[in-house]
């Protein structure tokens, strides 16, 4: 289903969710470029400004597990509206913040909105679109989410250099206000009639695990925490995760139902998605570091190098669905995974050899392969869930995305340090360091193909009805609010 073929109400709904995806993923990266300028404006030490980024990341990690239950209990329209409202209010508070403490609190508000915006938007698409059109719809709404992290640093640098850092947050206000109005008018309020009591014990365990693992991985990758700090946090996070698993198998209505892993496509999709996203999560940090440190590009020039990747991602919008339906999930995921790893290594080799013009088509290819793989992974993981499992399955997918973004950044940081990052100063030393890092990241990208070759090779499902709504209730946007 293309947006042109969809009914008018569905078409606008897809645009609304896509814009929400773009806002959330853009804001996760746009701030990093502005931290030095923000520190100067607020009279703070730049080293303390990392708390601005960490406050957002941790809030998202902690609240993500609750998003599915909230949507099932109160309806997707109400929760999506609250998400946009929190995100927009947090953006205004960030722009007006007079000191670091206020700015950190405002970022927590933004993170609370961001934690619900993406998973609830995706759940809305799952419930609103017929299964035969689900992959096309998911492809449409997730592409902006892939583009957000790519353009975030460039846009942030532009706004800081030519306007002020406040506009990094102010640009969210008109979009957010229009988004709230559109949500109220256009989004149906899918909910479940019978929702079990909220699993507070399970939430505390899984939120603690997410917070510890995210903070440890961010610390290893970007905060330069020592291993004596990172390792205990990782251990604590994994212990909380194990305790949650024991709790889920005993609880009457756990936050994440163990039945999810009995759905073959979800179980295999979750494993493949986790390992498949680690290498991808490394690229937003590795690429700008390589271009600036390894090749001597200016920050603006390095930012502009993301444009070919964006073009590649957008170019696949109309062909992803037909490709998966023709070749099947197994072939598409396996081949795109292998080709993506080889392409990324090729970009590194061309850069180190000085063949800069060849990097452009390779970056276009990287964007196309990545978009195809993401669309196929997302759809395969959710496609066989019934309505009662959709909320928790969708939240688990979002948790996997969150963890693997941090894990990818941590992987880059550890590899650069392992290959001489603290000592490499000469050009040949930097080139050797980046060559080894690119080869390892390429291997991490290719390895999940060993999982993808084992998945069911059926093409995207074709049915004529809406997803089975079970005990769902739907309040249309035109009646009861």
Automatic annotation (TrEMBL):
Keywords: Cell membrane, Membrane, Transmembrane, Transmembrane helix, Transport. SUPFAM superfamilies: MFS general substrate transporter. Signal peptide: none annotated. It is found in: Cell membrane. PROSITE patterns: MFS (PS50850). Its main location: membrane. The chain crosses the membrane at residues 12-31, 51-71, 78-98, 104-125, 137-159, 165-186, 198-217, 223-245, 266-283, 289-311, 332-356, 403-424, 430-453. Pfam families: MFS_1 (PF07690). The keyword Transmembrane applies. It is a multi-pass membrane protein. Residues 13-459 form the Major facilitator superfamily (MFS) profile domain. NCBIfam families: PRK10504.1. PANTHER family: BLR6921 PROTEIN, MAJOR FACILITATOR SUPERFAMILY MULTIDRUG TRANSPORTER MFSC. This is Multidrug transporter subunit MdtD. The gene is mdtD.
């Amino acid at each position: 289903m293309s947006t042109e073929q969809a009914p008018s109400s569905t078409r606008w709904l897809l645009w609304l969710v896509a814009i929400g995806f773009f806002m959330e993923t853009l804001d996760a990266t746009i701030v990093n470029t502005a931290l030095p300028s923000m520190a100067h404006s607020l009279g703070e030490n730049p080293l303390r400004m990392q708390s601005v980024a960490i406050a957002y990341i941790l809030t998202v990690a902690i609240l993500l597990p609750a998003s599915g239950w909230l949507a099932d209990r109160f309806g997707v329209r109400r929760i999506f509206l609250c998400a946009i409202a929190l995100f927009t209010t947090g953006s205004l508070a960030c722009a007006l913040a007079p000191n670091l403490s206020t700015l950190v609190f405002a970022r927590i508000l933004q993170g609370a909105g961001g934690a619900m915006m993406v998973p609830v938007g995706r759940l809305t698409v799952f419930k609103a679109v017929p299964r035969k059109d689900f992959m096309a719809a998911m492809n449409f709404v997730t592409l902006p989410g892939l583009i957000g992290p790519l353009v975030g640093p460039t846009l942030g640098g532009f706004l800081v250099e030519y306007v002020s850092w406040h506009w990094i947050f102010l640009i969210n206000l008109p979009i957010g206000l229009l988004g709230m109005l559109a949500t109220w008018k256009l989004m149906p309020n899918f909910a479940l009639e019978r929702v079990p009591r909220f699993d507070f014990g399970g939430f505390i365990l899984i939120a603690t695990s997410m917070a510890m693992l995210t903070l440890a991985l961010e610390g290893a990758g970007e905060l330069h925490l020592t291993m004596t700090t990172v390792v205990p946090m990782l251990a604590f996070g994994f212990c909380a995760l194990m305790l949650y698993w024991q709790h889920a198998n005993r609880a009457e209505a756990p936050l994440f139902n163990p039945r999810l892993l009995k759905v073959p496509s979800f179980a295999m999709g979750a494993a493949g998605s986790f390992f498949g996203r680690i290498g991808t999560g490394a690229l937003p940090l590795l690429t700008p570091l390589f271009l600036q440190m390894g090749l001597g590009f200016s920050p603006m020039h390095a930012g502009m190098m993301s444009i070919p990747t964006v073009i590649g991602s957008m170019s696949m919008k109309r062909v992803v669905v037909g490709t998966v339906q023709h070749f099947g999930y197994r072939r598409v995921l396996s081949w795109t995974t292998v080709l993506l790893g080889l392409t990324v290594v090729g970009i590194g080799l061309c850069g180190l050899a000085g063949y800069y013009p060849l990097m452009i088509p390779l970056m276009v290819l990287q964007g196309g392969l990545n978009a195809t793989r993401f669309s196929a992974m997302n759809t395969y993981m959710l496609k066989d869930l019934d309505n009662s499992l959709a909320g928790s399955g969708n939240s688990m997918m979002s948790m996997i995305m969150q963890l693997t973004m941090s894990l990818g950044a941590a992987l880059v940081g550890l590899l650069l340090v392992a290959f001489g990052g603290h000592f490499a100063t000469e050009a040949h030393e930097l080139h050797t360091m980046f060559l080894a890092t690119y080869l390892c990241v390429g291997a991490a990208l290719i390895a999940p193909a060993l999982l993808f070759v084992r998945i069911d090779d059926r093409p995207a499902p074709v049915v004529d009805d809406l997803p089975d709504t079970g005990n769902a209730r739907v309040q249309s946007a035109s009646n009861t609010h």
